[in-house]
UniProtKB/TrEMBL annotation:
<dbReference type="InterPro" id="IPR005174">
    <property type="entry name" value="KIB1-4_b-propeller"/>
</dbReference>
<dbReference type="Pfam" id="PF00646">
    <property type="entry name" value="F-box"/>
</dbReference>
<dbReference type="InterPro" id="IPR050942">
    <property type="entry name" value="F-box_BR-signaling"/>
</dbReference>
<dbReference type="InterPro" id="IPR001810">
    <property type="entry name" value="F-box_dom"/>
</dbReference>
<protein>
    <recommendedName>
        <fullName>F-box domain-containing protein</fullName>
    </recommendedName>
</protein>
<dbReference type="InterPro" id="IPR036047">
    <property type="entry name" value="F-box-like_dom_sf"/>
</dbReference>
<feature type="domain" description="F-box">
    <location>
        <begin position="1"/>
        <end position="40"/>
    </location>
</feature>
<dbReference type="Pfam" id="PF03478">
    <property type="entry name" value="Beta-prop_KIB1-4"/>
</dbReference>
Length: 423
């Protein structure tokens, strides 16, 4: 029997167990095998999950190539853990990646500030309204200033005039991640943005963004801000967490707001360098606390300004904790209601500029169980900062592993976790 004559059911079973790179190679063997792969995609039968880390390109936003680091490939045997998707042209050239969800990247144009949802494997793309259309509110109002040739030069905040920045980096530091409910024209997108981090919502067919849920009226703390969002598919609503662990839930229209957990009672006990991520796993609401340390301060350079050509600082993740929201949360939230977790029952969580997701090590061979995989934090991006911060934290062994060595390149663009998919 020739390879091309193998039963289609057998080929379908084999291809569904392959990681993406082997899945693509499988489709190139012959016409009949390619047909099986194409049919799998139509039926929604995807390949074996394999998380990739999108790495900043040396050519920056002018590049038409995306470079990924495959953590599922073992380093033994000299196998290259890097994958390159090239000839993506206008899909990524001049754009920054600002999020990812189920095989789709969210990119942002640095001039018109228009986000797009983009699948780099199929090159399918969905446009969202420009972020210039976010309405003015208490802590947000940006307007472009024009150079003599008519091009955008700088952007500034009318309400906070001290917040002003060059047009080349406004899209790097003023807008955080964009979270989407689905990768189609019917989904809702939520952006974390602004001088004091706020929320805004839109849909692909909308003409503009709308303001999302605001901080409750009783909150007066200057440091309180939204830090992460998670979309719960079964409940069809978003969950947002703030710096002081207040959790809000709201529907796809930004309405029917529910306070799931109020902020902690003593904000002074929270480290300002600690970031929160929110996620649901096995029916429980989890938050991941991530403390980021300035290595210059750690090396007793607290009162030293950087010299000419020196980086402003290097950030490194120094602590990660996973906590579960316990029952009986009332109007006064406390630490006792967030219960520490060190066993994820074989799952691992992926946090960063992407939408937080989890994978079981038996479903995605190559990942380590009961770990938190992290990458660059979006609000730590700066042209003067170096040493990208990505790796994993083993919850049971209480140890870090930085599996990609930092480089000396400025880290304007963050690394992002990405789950390749044809759907």
């Amino acid at each position: 029997m020739a390879w091309s004559d193998l039963p289609k059911d057998l080929l379908c079973s084999i291809s569904s167990q392959l990681p993406i790179v082997d899945f693509i190679r499988f489709s190139l063997v012959c016409t009949s095998w390619n047909y099986v792969v194409a049919n799998n995609i139509i039926l929604g039968i995807d390949f074996h999950p394999s998380p990739w880390l999108l790495l900043p390109n040396e050519a920056g936003e002018a590049s038409d190539t995306l470079t990924f680091y495959d953590i599922a490939i073992k380093e033994e045997g000299g196998l290259d853990r890097h994958h390159h998707l090239s000839s993506l042209d206008y899909h990524i050239s001049g754009r920054r990646c600002i999020g990812s969800n189920d095989g789709w990247l969210v990119t942002l144009d640095k001039i018109d500030l228009q986000p797009r949802i983009f699948n780099p494997l199929t090159k399918a793309e969905i446009c969202l309204p420009s972020l210039f259309t976010i309405p003015e509110e208490q802590c947000h109002s940006i307007m472009p200033e024009y150079a003599s040739d008519g091009s955008f030069e700088t952007f500034y905040n009318e309400i906070h005039p001290q917040f002003s920045t060059n047009a080349k980096i406004i899209h790097e530091i003023y807008f955080g991640k964009i979270v989407i409910s689905s990768n189609d024209s019917h989904g809702t997108a939520v952006v974390i943005h602004g001088y004091r981090i706020s929320l805004a919502l839109t849909k692909p067919d909308d003409q503009a963004w709308e303001l999302g849920p605001q901080m409750p009226y009783y909150d007066t703390n200057e440091l309180e801000e939204f830090e992460d969002i998670f979309y719960h598919k079964e409940e069809q609503r978003f969950y947002a967490i703030t710096h002081f662990s207040m959790v809000l839930a709201f529907d796809l229209k930004g309405q029917n707001i529910e306070v799931i957990c109020p902020p902690i009672q003593d904000p002074l006990t929270i480290n300002s360098d600690c970031k929160n991520y929110i996620f649901f796993l096995l029916g429980s609401l989890l938050k991941v606390e991530r403390e980021i340390t300035d290595l210059n301060l750690q090396n007793n350079r607290r009162h030293m300004w950087p010299g000419p050509g020196e980086p402003w600082c290097n950030d490194k993740t120094s602590r990660i904790s996973v906590l579960k929201l316990g029952p009986g949360v009332t109007s006064s939230c406390s630490f006792s209601q967030w219960i520490p977790v060190d066993d994820l029952e074989g799952f691992s969580i992926f946090i960063g500029c992407n939408q937080t997701f989890a994978l079981h090590h038996k479903v995605a061979p190559g990942i380590r169980p009961n770990c938190v995989y992290f990458n660059d934090q979006w609000d730590a991006m700066s042209p003067t900062k170096v040493a990208h911060d990505f790796g994993l934290y083993d919850l049971q062994n209480h140890c870090f592993e930085y599996f990609v060595y930092p480089d000396s390149q400025p880290k304007l663009s963050p690394s992002i976790w990405f789950m390749p998919s044809f759907t």
